[in-house]
Amino acid sequence: MILLLMVLQLQSGFAPSFLAEIAANYFLDEQYSNAIGAWTELFSRMPERGRILYNLASSQFMIDSLSSADSLLSYDITDVREDTLMLARDLNSIALAIQEDDYAVVESSVNSLRIAVADGFSLHCEKTGLEAGLNWLDNHEPPEDQQDQNEDQQDQNEDQQDQDEDQQDQDEDQQDQDEEQQNEQQPPPHISEMTPEQAQAILDLVEDSSQAEDSIGTKKMGYPAGPIL
């Protein structure tokens, strides 16, 4: 079929739009090898179109030609949505890592897909890729050096957490010291800075003190008992 398509192309010269339609139909009919031939021919004519490259990589992915798809997806594809391209890279990366038994890359791809699925609006392929990665991780042990790295990272995280808590305690202590120092250095309000209510409260207090009786109730406080000479 691909040979026939190429012969017809050489004889009649298919328009790019018609060739793209043929490639898309091949893909939808799950004739991925034929789709690859059509996308490749179309890309040779229009190498500036990143979407053609993306579709070619998608076809490569469907026939498990993951290394080829990975190479194509590494190009700077500007006319494909960023989230769509990122998803394609993650799915291809996790499939390729599983194929190559690369524990670290599978784990990294699972973490990326976990974030993508967490928003609640993920596609079915994201959930499928995440489940495949999690199942693979459950049935494989990390290499010894990976285990050591994980333990070292865990220790570093715990140390960092302890440092953060110590820093928080120091910040709180410093804040308390600053507040105490500010209270000690703050002078009492000047008479000119008093509100009328504050001034009246002080006058009332002085007046009450001057009218208080002494301990035996015969004279005002502040004056000796007996006649005043």
Description:
The chain has 229 residues and is mainly alpha-helical. It contains 10 helices and no strands. The chain has helices at residues 2-12, 16-28, 32-45, 50-62, 66-73, 82-99, 103-118, 124-138, 144-185, 196-210. The model is unreliable at 214-229 (pLDDT under 50).
Write a short abstract of this structure.
With 229 residues, this protein is mostly helical. Helix content is 72%, strand content 0%.
Radius of gyration computed on alpha carbons: 40 Å
Order of helices and strands: HHHHHHHHHH
The CATH topology label of the domain at 1-79 is Serine Threonine Protein Phosphatase 5, Tetratricopeptide repeat
Give the rounded overall mean pLDDT: 79
Question: Can you tell me the CATH class of the domain at 1-79?
Answer: Mainly Alpha
Classify the secondary structure makeup into a structural class: mainly alpha
